[in-house]
Amino acid sequence: MSTSKTHLIEDLIASEDVAFFPYTQFSNITHISPGIYSPEWNVKWTTRNINVQLQSLNHVFEKDDETIQKFIKQLREVAKLPSHNNILTFYGLTKDTEKQIYYVILESTENGLPLPEFLKKSTTLSWIEKFKLAKQLSLGIQHLHNNSIVFRELNTYRVIVEEGDLKIAGVGLSIATDESMFNGALLYKDPWILQDSAYKIKKSSDIYSLGILFWELTSERRPFANDPREMSKLTTSIMNGERESPIADTLKEYSDLYQCCWERNADKRPSIGQVVQALSLIETGNAIFKRDSDRFEFMEIINELDDKGDDIIDDNDDDDNNNNVNSNYNMESEATFEFVEVIDDNAQDSMNYQTLADDDAGSLYARGSVYSQFSQSSHHQKTTTKERRIPREIVFPGEEKIERKWWHSVLWCV
Question: What residue stretches are annotated with the Protein kinase domain (predicted)?
Fold first, then answer.
């Protein structure tokens, strides 16, 4: 460590803008293998009876004075940041006086995994689980932007997942980490930063990185992971507008969203507030997002009836099979009654589902109610097999039919 530069951190501590804790408060200090951005030590904070992690600031003092001053400014910003469920907590600083090493004190991620490792290990992630992580990531960035903090270095190894919940790590500590350990970090950077080192990093730069991470959640791999090109050639292509292609079966609105986020024109990218709003609209309007166990039951019954409807069509191509039609139809009636009962149970509560004050959209996929169709079926009225096909897109009670064009009022870049 350059002792000639430590006065900068000492002045910060003296100002009391950042909390400082004696090193003697920590015990059971265990060295951990440092990953790309991982802290170096697991420790027990005895006075608080919690486990935390320490990250050395040695790397910082190898920088020039101007860079260190930027780091000090970042620490001041992070120290004032209110806690948030999706941001790794920064507690303050400590110093090992024997070794003359300063450390930042961070919330423990001992049981968490960086996003790439989590996606590799979790081979059966559902779309809803991935969407949950996307929303948590957005809420974390929204918290930073609402407090006038630009992350600057958002990438896959800054995202930690523990027990299904996501936290953003390293806020305010980008200068304290060695970017050279992860060459792929360039693929998450705003192309304008790659093109011009003097480019002033803005909130829109975080939005670009967010879009890349949204894509990564659906692809379950890092961007351009299988691309044979050298990094310099790849980044040049990215600066010229090349992006990964949307993954098959991704919700159209979700892929629209992340493609808006990674727009080359930074002025066309949505704000983080618009991103969070769009995610909420996708969630509230899409039938695959069940608000409770009853909605899960909706989809199970729909799929069951749909499968049976296909069997009926296959088995009943002529009038000689009418008896079989009636037999199969009656076999379905129990499930049909159950479906209608679920709808009736939810009708009174349908308006309790999450809505936005300025949202007139209702449901993203509201294209024809099946309620009356199932009500008729439940009374054993005779219908043709064509009429009884079960639509995949549903209007739940209390939701309104709308046109998809509303999406353009949320994201003008699509």
Answer: 26-282
Residue 223's identity, in one-letter code, is: P
Helices 65-79 and 6-15, packing angle to 10 deg:
20
Q: To the nearest 10°, the Cα dihedral for 19, 24, 29, 34? A: 40
| C-alpha to C-alpha distance for 333 and 379, rounded to whole angstroms | 9
Alpha-carbon distance 178 to 175, whole Å?
8
Give me Rg for the CA atoms of the chain: 27
d(CA 152, CA 199): 12
Burial class for 141, CB neighbours closer than 10 Å (0-12, 13-18, 19+):
buried
**Can you list the pairs that 249-257 forms with residues at least 24 positions away whose Cβ atoms lie under 8 Å?**
250/218, 251/127, 251/282, 251/286, 253/278, 253/281, 253/282, 253/286, 253/364, 253/407, 254/131, 254/134, 254/214, 254/218, 254/282, 255/218, 256/407, 256/411, 256/414, 257/211, 257/214, 257/282, 257/411
Q: Whole-model pTM? A: 0.71
pLDDT category of residue 314 using cuts at 50, 70 and 90:
low
Q: Say how far apart CA 253 and CA 131 lie, in whole Å.
A: 12
Residues 177-229 pLDDT 10s: 655 556 678 899 999 998 888 888 899 999 999 999 999 999 999 999 989 99
Residues 318 and 141: their CA atoms lie apart, in Å, by 60
> With contact defined as beta carbons under 8 Å apart, do 174 and 149 qualify?
no
Both tokens assigned to 35: 């990953």
User: Over the stretch 251-289, which tens digit does the pLDDT of each residue have?
Assistant: 899 999 999 999 999 999 999 999 999 999 998 876 566
Sign of the four-CA dihedral 178, 184, 187, 191: positive
Sheet of strand 101-107: strand arrangement: 26-31, 41-45, 50-56, 101-107, 90-96
